[in-house]
Amino acid sequence: MPQLNPNPWFLTMLATWLAYSLIIQPKILAFTTANPPANKKLTTPDTTPWTWPWT
């Protein structure tokens, strides 16, 4: 089964992952977000129980 032979594509895959890990990934992670998350005060929701008319 020729698809199980890693010889022609293993070095290509290895070089691609090394390029991604060492070159491309640090450049992508260096970007800052356009809208950084703000520290908002957490509001607690109103938890009053529902009054059913038949109880």
TrEMBL record:
It is a single-pass membrane protein. Coiled coil: none annotated. It is found in: Mitochondrion membrane. One of its GO terms (molecular function) is proton transmembrane transporter activity. GO terms for cellular component: mitochondrial membrane; proton-transporting ATP synthase complex. GO terms for biological process: proton motive force-driven ATP synthesis. The chain crosses the membrane at residues 6-24. It comes from the Eukaryota. Keywords: ATP synthesis, CF(0), Hydrogen ion transport, Ion transport, Membrane, Mitochondrion, Transmembrane, Transmembrane helix, Transport. Belongs to the ATPase protein 8 family. This is ATP synthase complex subunit 8. It comes from Acanthorhynchus tenuirostris.
